Amino acid sequence: MKQITGGVTAAKGFMAASTAAGIKYRDRKDMAMIYSEVPCVAAGTFTTNIVKAAPVKWDQNVVYNQGEAQAVVVNAGIANACTGEEGMGYCKETAEKVAELLNVSAEEVLVASTGVIGKQLPMDRICAGIDMMVPILDGSLESGHNAALAIMTTDTHEKEIAVEFELDGKTVTIGGMCKGSGMIHPNMCTMLSFVTTDVAISKELLQEALSADVQDTYNMVSVDGDTSTNDTCLLLANGLAGNTKITEKNADYEVFVKALNFVNEYLAKQMAGDGEGATALFEVKIIGAETKEQAKVLSKSVITSSLTKAAIYGHDANWGRILCAMGYSGANFDPEKVDLFFESAAGKLQIIENGVAVDYSEEEATKILSEEYVTAIADIKMGEATATAWGCDLTYDYVKINADYRS
Amino acid sequence: MKQITGGVTAAKGFMAASTAAGIKYRDRKDMAMIYSEVPCVAAGTFTTNIVKAAPVKWDQNVVYNQGEAQAVVVNAGIANACTGEEGMGYCKETAEKVAELLNVSAEEVLVASTGVIGKQLPMDRICAGIDMMVPILDGSLESGHNAALAIMTTDTHEKEIAVEFELDGKTVTIGGMCKGSGMIHPNMCTMLSFVTTDVAISKELLQEALSADVQDTYNMVSVDGDTSTNDTCLLLANGLAGNTKITEKNADYEVFVKALNFVNEYLAKQMAGDGEGATALFEVKIIGAETKEQAKVLSKSVITSSLTKAAIYGHDANWGRILCAMGYSGANFDPEKVDLFFESAAGKLQIIENGVAVDYSEEEATKILSEEYVTAIADIKMGEATATAWGCDLTYDYVKINADYRS
To answer: Rounded to an integer, what distance in angstroms lies between the CA atom of residue A264 and that of residue A285?
Structure first.
């Protein structure tokens, strides 16, 4: 498997388009579309928030009850959440408009929205945006890249990736893009992530691969502990790679799953590192756990601790807050057996041994914590299981961005 | 029942002292002592964090296994948490020193610490502080007030209260003080709270009254979601009011419980309003719930939402974040039935009805949200149960205070 340039248009038969529809933002693109030349099997995972945005409900029906899809249309700026019957109607209207122009069924059109909760979509602009995008759909890497730019809200940069690998002599490609910066504490999936692939695979295995993988990728990311109303991850597979269709968990399935994990983990980490106001990607690895679940609970508790996040912003090796956050996580362990290390491009340093501080250099610790990607590794010495979670530091700018987001 | 001036020395037979022991802070008092002329029955609730500070373990033994106490000694600046065997030894040494000077048993001396995790206590200064405090113990309101000042860390003001009420013709007094500003998400109790009373009551009922009441008071407060290693609430009753001893859940018990609730709720709200960097006390009431537990889960989810807290700082009526935080709380409700109101000294305003925004004035909403004490009321229309939680806004200053707390 190797990483290649590209995003959602990297896989065979996928095209994209984007446009400035003027939904909320000015002077930038805010709508995107993905289209596959042939129908795709579709898998998806969605927010567990019981306040679900209208597009989440629409997509759940498509993914769970229809199963095939050929197009995705996305807008940034307004989330179409808490919008009642009217909001549901707008999803249908959007899908029907796209379906008509692309000559597909409305039930094969997925919709996604992100932005302010509680406002209704300006349907005239949405429809005008669709009219503009359909004629310019194309399979270039540039159009995929522009789509990744168009779906951003408070993100500071676009997030996309593509990989390719071989399955029985055929080159298979997976490409993806996502957006997410605030209200990020996915509990099924990230804010919005779209992954396309030309692999031939059954719908059941596609969904199973995605559902399993989000547990270790998007669901291990948190920016602020707020699980969004709109979290959606969609995975479309159109089969154009020409590999022998994967219909059982054979060696081909394992190769695909591994490549999918690479793509999803990359996108998830990009979101954490681009958390609202963040200056650093903060990774927490728990090793020596009895079970993976225990390691996950512990690592997520640390990356969501406001006090730990503020200390990372201050490049302060305040290890007591890390041990404290592990302690209130709900997972069991012996605090007096924990070893803790900080690691980054600047080096690796042991901070505590068996729950008590070693004689480390605060200066060296601060140097390690001043990098853009810092890792805390806690060994709880109970077994062999591990887990990793990703978050970011808590900064003035997070507060600034969110104190008056709507205006 | 009426509120009176005073704190931990308001009840008969209680004295206090405080001193500048130079443990971490300079030019301010950082140690305090409470002493009762006669032995007290003692009740306590403690952090549920499995990383428990040494003084928490010491006090749990005193409260659960001994049951009587006559003195409390507290230091601010160093938490004596994650300090291993050495830290436990210092608790014992502290208690023995106090016991010797006051001629009580070391098992009747409660100890409490708050501050930086992972540093050992400077025992020479602790012992010198005890030597200074014992001779100046006195029952004046001033000495209680100074004790409340001495236990502060990042608190911006002292927190104390006293009330009195009648039980069979005798005046009974309850007084208390607490500290807490960051790492506040009590899960048994607040950071440090000390309540003294001269009521005559059995140990069993004293503990039962406290354990029940913290569920509605301290445990409904959150500043940052971080449950401390040191959370401790101690309640001492010395019986000097001369009331008929309460040994069953009679009318006297109910009167006492109501007064205790008033004291604890006051102290809990003071902590929330003085949350690190806070500019506002943020109260969330859930009404119309099926069960109290459901209402508690919903209200706590809203007051701990970083996005909601940032919006309160910005005086922004971003109701979508409140509904979103209710949605991911884990409690069940129908988002499309929710009514939401904002209320403060500046008025009361309905924002959403049946899950959708009403045509409210953003200007009026901002005016209401610009007060120092703002309330969000959500009616979920399922039943009669209610719950209230207290938090604060998320500000630049929270980040500033915590980015480099240790230096």
So the answer is: 18
Model ipTM value: 0.81
Q: How many helices (H) and strands (E) does chain A have?
A: 11, 15
Residues A225 and A92 in one domain: yes
- The model's pLDDT over B327-343, given as tens digits with 9 standing for 90+, comes to 989 899 999 999 999 99
- DSSP state letters, A260-271: HHHHHHHHHHHH
**CB atoms A226 and B84 under 8 Å:** no
DSSP A135: G
Clarify whether residues A286 and A260 are in a common domain: no
Residues of A with Cβ-Cβ distance to B363 under 8 angstroms: none
Within 10 angstroms of residue B294's Cβ, the number of other Cβ atoms is 21
* Beta partners for residue A30, in sequence order: none
Token duo for residue B8: 């931990």
**B392: nearest Cα among B305, B267, B301, B275:** B275
Asked if B185 lies within 8 A of A328 by C-beta distance, the reply is: yes
In the chain, the amino acid numbered A322 is: I
Q: B117 and A48 in contact by Cβ < 8 A? A: no
- Neighbouring residues of B46: CB distance < 8 A, sequence distance ≥ 6: B52, B56, B59, B60, B188, B189, B231, B232, B233
| CB neighbours of residue B400 within 10 Å | 16
Rounded to an integer, the average pLDDT of A138-159 is: 94
* Domain count of the fold of chain B: 2
Q: Are residues B232 and B310 in the same domain?
A: no
B121 touches A: beta carbon within 8 Å: no
**Distance of alpha carbon A140 from alpha carbon A15, whole angstroms:** 7
Among residues A238, A273, A308, which one ends one of the domains? A273
Cβ under 8 Å to A: B residues 310-369: 310-311, 313-314, 316, 318-321, 323-328, 332-333, 335-336, 352, 354-357
**Cα B11 to the center of its chain, rounded Å:** 19
Q: Same domain for B166 and B300? A: no
Is residue A74 within 8 A of residue A33, CB to CB? The reply is yes
Half-sphere exposure of B34 (CA within 13 A, CB side): 39
Distance separating alpha carbons of residues A313 and A295, to the nearest angstrom? 24
The minimal CB distance from A324 to the residues B228, B398, B406 is found for: B228
Local structure of B169: helix, strand or coil: coil
Same domain assignment for residues A225 and A287: no
Q: How far is CA A34 from each of CA A153, A358, B17, rounded to the nearest angstrom?
A: 18, 53, 71
Instruction: Please indicate whether, in this complex, the C-beta atoms of A225 and B304 are within 8 angstroms of each other.
Output: yes
Q: Distance (Å, rounded) from C-alpha B323 to C-alpha A227?
A: 11
Distance, CA of B347 to CA of B274 (rounded, Å): 23
Domain range enclosing B397:
281-403
Contact between B180 and B167 under an 8 Å Cβ cutoff? The reply is no
pLDDT digits (tens, 9 = 90+) for A255-297: 999 999 999 999 989 888 888 889 999 999 999 999 999 999 9
Helix (H, G, I), strand (E, B) or coil at A241: coil
Residues A149 and A285 in one domain: no
pLDDT mean across residues, chain B: 92
Residues 254-313 of A with CB under 8 A from B: 304-307, 310-311, 313
Higher-confidence position of B404 and B109? B109
- pTM of the predicted structure, to 2 decimals: 0.83
Please work out, in degrees rounded to the nearest 5, the angle formed at the alpha carbon of residue A25 by the alpha carbons of B317 and A107.
Answer: 90
Q: Distances in Å between the alpha carbon of B2 and those of A209, B14, B122, B203, B239?
A: 64, 20, 42, 25, 20
Active site residue A190: yes
DSSP states of A299-330: HHHHHT-HHHHHHHHTT---HHHHHHHHHTSS
Taking a C-beta distance cutoff of 8 angstroms, is the pair B144, B10 a contact? yes
Identify whether the C-beta of residue B267 lies closer than 8 Å to the C-beta of residue B158. Answer: no
Please give the structure tokens belonging to residue B163: 């009330």
- Location of structure tokens 């008033």: B262
